[in-house]
Amino acid sequence: MNTEELWQAMxxxxxxxxxxxxxxxxxxxxxxxxxxxxxxxxxVPNNFSKEWLENxxxxxxxxxxxxxxxxxxxxxYSVDRPGLKASAAPVAVLESYDNDVPQxxxxxxxxxxxxxxxxxxxxESFIVGPFNELAQAAAWAVAKNPGATYNPLFIxxxxxxxxxxxxxxxxxEVSRKIPQKKIKYTSSEKxxxxxxxxxxxxxxxxxKSLYQDIDVLMIDDVQFLSGKEKTQEEFFHVFNGLxxxxxxxxxxxxxxxxxxxxxxERLRSRFEGGMIADISLPDLETRLAILxxxxxxxxxxxxxxxxxxxxxxxxxNIRELEGALNRLTAYQKLNNKSPDLEIAKTLLKNVIFSxxxxxxxxxxxxxxxVFYDLKxxxxxxxxxxxxxxxxxxxxxxxxxxxxxxxxxxxxKKFGGKDHTTAIHAYNKIAKEIETNxxxxxxxxxxxxxxxx
Amino acid sequence: MKIIILKENxxxxxxxxxxxxxxxxxxxxxxxxxxxxxxxxxxxxxxDLELGIKYWALGKVxxxxxxxxxxxxxxxxxxxxxxxxxxxxxxxxxxxxxxENNQTQIKGLDAQDYPIIPKIEDENFIELNMLPFCEGLxxxxxxxxxxxVRPELSGVYLNFQKDRVQITATDSFRLAExxxxxxxxISRECSFILPQKTARELVNIFSEKDGQLKLYLSxxxxxxxxxxxxxxHPQIQIISRLIEGxxxxxxxxxxxxxxxxxxxxxxxxxxxxxTASIFSGKNNEVKIKVNPKKEEIEILSQNPELGENxxxxxxxxxxxxxxxxxxxxxxxxxxxxDGLANIKSSTVLFEVNGEEGPAVLRPxxxxxxxxxxxxxxxx
Lengths: 452, 379
Description:
The structure holds two protein chains of two kinds.
Chain A: H1 3-14, H2 20-26, E1 31-36, E2 39-44, H3 47-68, E3 74-79, H4 90-96, H5 133-144, E4 153-157, H6 163-177, E5 183-187, H7 188-200, H8 204-210, E6 216-220, H9 229-244, E7 248-253, H10 265-271, E8 275-279, H11 284-297, H12 304-313, H13 318-335, H14 341-347, H15 349-352, H16 361-371, H17 376-380, H18 386-403, H19 407-413, H20 419-435, H21 437-450
Helix pairs in contact in A: 1-3, 5-6, 7-8, 11-12, 11-13, 16-18, 16-21, 18-20, 19-20, 20-21
Chain B: E1 2-6, H1 7-17, E2 32-38, E3 41-47, E4 51-58, E5 60-63, E6 65-70, H2 71-79, E7 85-91, E8 94-99, E9 102-107, E10 126-129, H3 130-140, E11 155-160, E12 164-170, E13 174-181, E14 190-195, H4 196-206, E15 212-217, E16 221-227, E17 234-241, E18 260-265, H5 266-277, E19 285-291, E20 296-303, E21 307-314, E22 316-320, E23 327-332, H6 333-341, E24 347-352, E25 359-363, E26 369-373
Antiparallel strand pairs in B: 1-5, 1-7, 2-3, 2-6, 3-4, 4-17, 7-8, 8-9, 10-15, 11-12, 11-14, 12-13, 13-26, 15-16, 16-17, 18-22, 18-24, 19-20, 19-23, 20-21, 24-25, 25-26
């Protein structure tokens, strides 16, 4: 007879000895917690039940249990502790918060306190296409069997393509299946500021101990660790500690480990030691599928030609797809009618035709010249001075990259240079960007200037 | 059992313990109050199995004993008696009351069948000033989440630190936090979630009293105790279960900055929101436009069937990130009224964070209370 059957048999007998009201009140939600060496521990829902069973029914309960199982010599009672049953709750939370009143809520409350997970991100809501198949499959395998399949799992891909979604989905899936697992999601920026604070307060050890007994650790945007040596060092120790214990580590970044500049070699090699999966750009069909799923989630519907128009024109960022959809939804709510394709085109004009197209060669040359404190004509003039050659190459790079100008045109712009010079400049800078942190920063600063 | 007691003392006690009797429907004996005569005290208790209240009053005990009697009958009867001595006697599970010209018998049930109210073994306690504590509790107690989906939000969170206690409640649409500072530091830091019902009873029972309140804590229960004026023996004990679970990290909800802060006369603000509420739609929405340039707010509401209302209230801008930009936010008027009702000062500071960011109400010159409310989404 197992403990459950034992308790059922006990309940079946005791109901003849006490009144129905008493039975319903005092034996509700009771169960056998443990049975060992002749001692039975009964779990009760509250202290009132505990006092009552101990003082009033103990003899009776003991007598019945003893008659069922002669080994039982002692009965004890204990009040249910939190955590035993609490884990069932989070799944139900999502639906109940759905309501039609657009009253906004504190989003912070939905995020799980310890793991930092947002229940919104799940595998069910993740749309799979050829561009993210590999990453999704790897993530799914990890969620099934954390710590065993791919460790560490490194996911990289561009902005707004679902890296965070995938990371959090793993966390949510694991916590749903194995609620005891300790899961932590954090951004590398939070990790860094945690280290900085702990250094300030002289308790680095305490900070590290927070990460010691985690079963699944997820760090988002690890590229921001680049150049932060102390953080990298501490992270290295945390990483090793967890890895040795076969705990799952999942990382995300906007570029592969090789391309993260100023990253310690030993960290890089560890990142590459597990599974690296990339998320590339979604194809048209997937974008369309995402739009349809999002529309359904928001409980709106649009004509297919509109969705196709959005999918065809917004190509590289899923977040932008959502933004476009929000715009149309707002219009629909405001005017109480669905926009037709023409209206949709005007509505989405500034989402789709971003100011990118407003750049021209003159603007680029001016921006580069201003940035490097040169005169515009210096860039164009024939000169092989180092401090001019490099800015010139950068300007050529921009002309190619941003305006898709032809190489002969670029060469002509810079004082009648040969088109091979332009090709060389473009390739050189493009290659260097991948490895040189400073250059990447300079490029993005200049870009801001160009489009200002 | 035989005891002689002043009617006033008995009546006071009944008024307090009567509150929780009869709330639990599964066990009929819980409709009763337990009366015990012991040493020099008459002890009254009642419970609904989540919350227990005990009350002691001095009385002349001639014979010790106990009985339970229906709470409703006893309390309504005693309330009507003259202010004289009452003799209580138990014979054959019947309570005999003798007061001046009144002789009464009330049928009771055996005290042995009454639930045992648990005790807390721990001797350590935290001492609180009753009045400010209950006032603080009253300012947040209404804002707990009503449903049981998130049990941890259905109670009031008390976070005791060395020099202060933070009392917080939120239903995920709004949040109120009250901070009370102690005169002397307390020895232990602790935090727990108190069921809303218990918090309400604490406010009801202790709000008009002055004195010290002792708080005892165990793993899943809490005990509030106040002593008698005459002797150190406890007069009232309230023992309650605690809500299990971790309270969310609510500090991240409280906005650290704001786009604009405007000081407004509280009563006029409240009145104008009430006026606007008459014309609000089914979502209770009123629109509040803060105009930093003119230093005023505009309160708008409209209902396609009823009509519309617009009113203007001048205030004083203390700070704005952008002096010229007008910010319009839509709120549920109930939430604003609830928040304003708990602000005691005559001037309220109203902080806005755009169309969809949380807004904050604070009493002017009092950093110990704040009320955060989320707007209604503009569509």
